[in-house]
Design brief:
Elements lengths: L4 E5 L4 H6 L1 H10 L4 E4 L7 H11 L2 E6 L3 H5 L1 H11 L3 E3 L11 H20 L3 E5 L15 H7 L7 E5 H6 L4 H7 L6 E4 L1 E6 L5 E4 L8 H10 L4 E4 L8 H16 L1
Parallel strand pairs: 1-2, 1-10, 2-3, 3-4, 4-5, 5-6, 6-7, 7-10
Antiparallel strand pairs: 8-9
Helix pairs in contact: 2-3, 3-5, 6-7, 9-10
């Protein structure tokens, strides 16, 4: 049993990165982070991504990606992520054409299972990143969409990239889900939220440790469940995203030391 490593998903700082990518990457490193998940950044060739990260003193440990490019040209996508250096990849949700009903969802599960098997053969891991809507159910099936997905895919083919804030907003206990899928969650998205929601029902996100999640219990479950990386993510900010990142890094570092 050991504490997971600390990283940040760059989607968190997507707004300043649109204006100044390299400057933003350097500020991420200054905030304390050494490892990142590549996501939400301006389109770039893989070689430039690797170079920009290296110049900032950062290393990619994972990436977010769509499924369809893998299905269209597997070797091209493989080369891209190998060059970036990220061998854990994850879509940010189910494919759009596989959401409508139970049959479509099961087709999506089969596609993810097949892709995960192929990636595994090449030394990669495929995970699935959830939101709150995966804690809804299809008519005629009493399982959450998320549990249905994991029950219908191999545990060595599709891993769990649990987004803890969305688990909580979906009405479930993040700690229970970490333990339910122990050994299947190499990466967790460490995200915090308050009790506030806007008129659309979207929660207010906050730097880690400043919201309602039970972080001591989460850290304990993560350490006992084989989690390798806690990846800080914050969808929206009340102030400077880089300040939120600094506060969240300091919280993780102090909590895990």
């Amino acid at each position: 049993m050991s504490d997971p490593g600390i990283a940040i998903i760059l989607y968190t700082v997507r707004e300043p990165a649109q204006e100044d990518l390299r400057g933003t990457l350097k500020r991420v490193r200054e905030a304390g982070f050494e490892h990142v998940q590549w996501s939400g950044m301006p389109p770039m060739p893989a070689e430039e991504i690797r170079r920009a990260l290296g110049e900032a003193g950062l290393v990619a440990i994972a990436g977010h990606c769509a499924v369809e490019p893998w299905e269209e040209d597997f070797e091209k996508e493989l080369r891209f992520w190998q060059t970036v250096g990220a061998y854990d990849v994850a879509p940010g949700g189910m494919m759009n054409d596989c959401k409508e009903n139970l049959d479509a969802w099961q087709t999506g599960a089969s596609r993810l299972d097949a892709l995960g098997a192929r990636l595994s053969e090449r030394g990669f891991r495929l995970s699935y990143h959830n939101h709150a809507w995966e804690f809804e159910k299809f008519d005629g099936d009493d399982r959450y969409k998320l549990d249905l997905l994991y029950e219908e895919t191999g545990p060595d083919r599709l891993f769990c990239e649990l987004d803890l804030a969305w688990v909580r907003h979906g009405g479930e206990d993040p700690v229970r889900y970490i333990r339910t899928y122990a050994g299947r969650c190499p990466i967790l998205h460490a995200k915090d939220l308050t009790e506030k929601v806007d008129e659309r029902g979207v929660p207010e996100f906050t730097p880690l440790g400043q919201g309602i999640l039970d972080w001591p219990a989460i850290f304990r479950a993560a350490s006992e469940s084989g989690v390798e990386w806690l990846v800080y993510e914050q969808d929206t900010h009340q102030s400077d995203p880089l300040q939120s990142a600094r506060e969240s890094y300091e919280f993780l570092k102090k909590s895990l030391s």
